[in-house]
Amino acid sequence: MEEKCEIKKDVTELIGNTPMVYLNNIVDGCVARIAAKLELLEPCSSVKDRIAYSMIKDAEDKGLITPGKIHYDATGPEIWKDSEGKVDALVVGIGTGGTVTGAGKFLKEKNSEIKVYGVEPVESAVLNGGKPGPHLIQGIGAGIVPDVLDVGILDEVVEVSSEEAIETAKKLALNEGLLVGISSGAAAAAAIKLAKRPENTGKLIVAIFPSAGERYLSSALFESLRQEAENMTFD
Fold it and tell me: Which of 45, 183, 184, 211 is catalytic?
């Protein structure tokens, strides 16, 4: 049966239902599969589309907003549906904590065996008891434990360095055709670490890719390319 297509009434109907795609070319040595949830394909190319819409809708309805609610109501169910309930682990970079709290809560309610992993910069590993510090992974690692974050939902917080995040984001663009931001690179790097653990053999790990990469053109993500362009000579 062909899938029904229809013209949406407005842009808000384009929010959510983002696709998932397997990573194939940067996963050497992994014994688990990794699927990326492409929030970069939201209308404004960010996971925050869901939050913004939820805030506006709640404000229009009753002026109330529940932290993590939209990810519990939408992101989590989409992952469960698209994976046909076979997801074994969720990997999310921790910014405000809403995504990991909402989606993680939903998935654990569906299957208590599902593991939920947060991701934070090794340079500012507050959730692992470290001290806040400067890093280059925009969008995560604020140096505090966010009020929205339900730390009880986390099975582990994986540390990723700024260099790892940037290099993995570059590999995603070059080898997987996914132009993503630095925090997506951090999520992928963490997922790859987890996918190499023997205990995860044959499991499905879903990593949230929060945003697209074009907004990082002036950041460290593209610094080497800028230098290369600046040093080009023409005969």
Answer: 183
